């Protein structure tokens, strides 16, 4: 962990290692692409998945990367604040990140700038735009039957 | 007037329908028993046809309307004619004509051509896959069967059903010789392919192509197709009895049941084959066996 | 016409359609064809195309993806036909009732297309095979 702390000095907020095989790195949204590209290309990490959660200040996105030869998991946390939910897309350079960024975009409403193929992944095409199901203030009664637009469903 | 009676009532349409639908019931019952199940009751074939006549017929937009409905009726009419010609000679009701065995075999091929026409005009891409498979299959199983028919007819000295049956009454059945046994095996495979049953039911593969060629048929059109299949299930074993056994009605019933049960058991124990396997099987092994049978017949074994 | 209607009750051909199901009900349908609960003795068989079908067996609660497709398959089935809403998800969306992707149970979706569609409800998660056979016989009695 010491070498990571040296290399990424100016770009991260802090880095902790609570257990032997876990490292948590907290970054700002502007620096997240550089840190992840460093870890992916130079530090020989593999990409597992990315998760998003709606907390009061914004949306916290955690990228989970793994380092197989040392049996370590590295989590990179960023907080994308309300009201402008924008972050630079990593899927532009690394194709593995593209699908999970599409899912975070349609379920939580985060815009990924520069993503090459922003379409719906899991939600139906007829689901109304502008409603994000996995936010905390989304209720079932927000979407009525009339809002579904079946013309877009491709039949 | 007598011809109309033969064609429509006995041994033509009504008689062939009844016996054919009972044979279809026998098929489902034996298959069920082999799998340790009960099977459907004896009127199941009739109930299926009655139900199909009760439903509406849907014609898809891209299909040619009149050809779509006319093709299965045409197949039904020709297969009824084939069975009439066969049974009239088999039951000793009148004289046949020279060449009627070839006419019967090719009248039995018309339902397959009607099926190809239906599949092509229905406008569905899955049907066209079934059509290409059916055309290849039609070309494959014709060759060994023609070799066998020519061999048996030339041995009997005449290309008519009467001549073949009379020759066998005098000289003993064809199946009691070695060439007859080999030819019977080849003929059973060709019959199974002509009836469109497993292992050769590629054209109407149910789970693979969503019923293939038959995808767009519904209501009365499907009833005509099922009836023509039932009549073929009655007519083709009688064709085989004439070629290989030659006796009349008494031994014929037992032989008929034997051939039908043989076809059912082959259906239940085999998987479906691919089209290139089927073509290699018919043009390679079965044609070779038919030529071998022809050589044995020539030398009188 | 009476004879043909009697014939209709003696041979029902079923097309199985799965809309956003967890696949448990789909596996249970296969059980009916096994030797213990053999339904072929009633004349019922599974067919591969909706054009040949007399009964549509709809498993699962209906998704926004599946709704236009379910309506299209219903239109392609020649009438008269019977619809079987299979399992708790088919009858009333089950535990997925307040989810963001479920558009409604089967009867709500089909009644938009045809208000007098005949539906048989078979509850259970998954239904027992005895319940399935009883439901089908009850449906045949109501035609």
Summarize this structure briefly.
Chain B has 301 residues and is an all-alpha fold.
Tell me what you see in this structure.
The complex is a heterotrimer of chains A (155), B (301) and C (143). With 155 residues, chain A is α/β, with parallel strands linked by helices. Chain A has a single domain, classed as 2-Layer Sandwich (Beta Polymerase, domain 2). Chain A is 18% helix and 32% strand. Chain A has three helices and seven strands, in the order H-E-E-H-E-E-E-E-H-E. Chain A has a five-stranded mixed β-sheet, covered by helices on one side. Chain A has a two-stranded parallel sheet with strand order 6-7. In chain A, a hairpin with a 4-residue loop joins strand 4 and strand 5 (72-81). The radius of gyration of chain B is 19 Å and the shape is globular. Chain C is 38% helix and 19% strand. Chain C is of the alpha/beta class and 143 residues long. In chain C, helix 2 (24-31) links the parallel strand 1 and strand 2. Chain C has a single domain, classed as Rossmann fold. Classes of the chains: A alpha/beta (155), B mainly alpha (301), C alpha/beta (143).
Which key features would you list for this structure?
heterotrimer; A: 155 residues; alpha/beta; Beta Polymerase, domain 2; 18% helix; 32% strand; C: 143 residues; five-stranded parallel sheet; two-stranded antiparallel sheet; 6 helices; 7 strands; globular
């Amino acid at each position: 962990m010491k070498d990571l702390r040296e290399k990424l000095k100016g770009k991260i907020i802090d880095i902790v290692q609570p257990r032997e095989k876990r490292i948590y790195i907290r970054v700002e949204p502007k620096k997240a692409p550089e840190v992840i590209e460093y870890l992916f290309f130079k530090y020989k990490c593999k990409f597992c998945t990315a998760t998003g959660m709606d907390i009061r200040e914004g949306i916290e996105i955690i990228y989970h990367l793994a380092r197989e030869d040392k049996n370590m998991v590295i989590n990179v946390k960023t907080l994308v604040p309300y009201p402008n939910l924008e972050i630079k897309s990593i899927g532009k350079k690394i194709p593995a990140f593209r699908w999970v960024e599409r899912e975070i975009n349609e379920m939580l409403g985060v815009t990924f700038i520069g993503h090459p193929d922003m379409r719906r992944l899991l939600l139906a095409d007829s689901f109304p735009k502008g409603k994000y199901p996995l936010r905390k203030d989304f209720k079932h009664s927000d979407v009525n039957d009339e809002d579904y637009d079946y013309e877009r469903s491709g039949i | 007037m007598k011809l109309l009676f033969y064609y429509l009532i006995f041994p033509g349409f009504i008689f062939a329908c009844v016996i054919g639908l009972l044979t279809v019931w026998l098929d489902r019952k034996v298959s069920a028993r082999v799998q340790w199940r009960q099977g459907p009751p004896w009127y199941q074939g009739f109930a299926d046809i009655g139900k199909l006549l009760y439903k509406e017929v849907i014609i898809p937009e891209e299909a040619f309307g009149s050809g779509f409905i006319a093709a299965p009726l045409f197949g039904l009419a020709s297969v009824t004619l084939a069975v009439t010609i066969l049974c009239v000679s088999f039951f000793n009701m009148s004289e046949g004509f020279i060449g009627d065995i070839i006419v019967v075999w090719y009248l039995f091929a018309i339902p397959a051509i009607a099926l190809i026409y239906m599949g092509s005009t229905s406008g569905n891409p899955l049907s066209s896959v079934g059509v290409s498979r059916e055309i290849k299959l039609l070309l494959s199983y014709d060759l060994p069967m023609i070799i066998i028919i020519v061999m048996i007819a030339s041995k009997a000295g005449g290309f008519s059903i009467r001549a073949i049956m009379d020759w066998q009454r005098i000289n003993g059945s064809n199946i009691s010789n070695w060439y007859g046994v080999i030819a019977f095996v080849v003929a059973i495979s060709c019959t199974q392919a002509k009836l469109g049953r497993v292992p050769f039911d590629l054209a109407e593969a149910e789970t693979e192509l969503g019923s293939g060629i038959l995808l767009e048929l519904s209501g009365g059109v499907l009833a005509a197709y099922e009836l023509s299949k039932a009549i073929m299930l009655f007519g083709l074993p009688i064709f085989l009895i004439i070629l290989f056994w030659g006796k009349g009605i008494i031994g014929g019933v037992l032989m008929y049941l034997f051939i039908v049960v043989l076809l059912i058991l082959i259906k239940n124990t085999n998987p479906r084959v691919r089209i290139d396997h089927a073509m290699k099987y018919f043009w390679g092994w079965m044609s070779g066996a038919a030529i071998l049978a022809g050589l044995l017949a020539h030398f009188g074994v | 016409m009476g004879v043909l209607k009697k014939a209709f009750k003696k041979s029902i051909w079923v097309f199985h359609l799965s809309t956003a199901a967890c696949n448990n009900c789909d596996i249970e349908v296969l059980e009916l064809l096994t030797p213990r609960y053999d339904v072929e003795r009633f004349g019922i068989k599974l067919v591969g195309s909706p054009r040949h079908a007399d009964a549509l067996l709809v498993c699962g609660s209906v998704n926004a993806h599946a709704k236009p497709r379910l309506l299209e398959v219903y239109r392609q089935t020649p009438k008269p036909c019977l619809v079987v809403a299979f399992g708790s998800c088919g009858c009333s969306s089950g535990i997925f009732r307040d989810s963001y992707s479920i558009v409604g149970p089967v009867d709500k979706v089909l009644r938009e297309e045809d208000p007098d569609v005949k539906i048989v409800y078979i509850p259970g998660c998954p239904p027992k095979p005895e319940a399935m056979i009883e439901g089908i016989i009850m449906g045949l009695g109501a035609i």
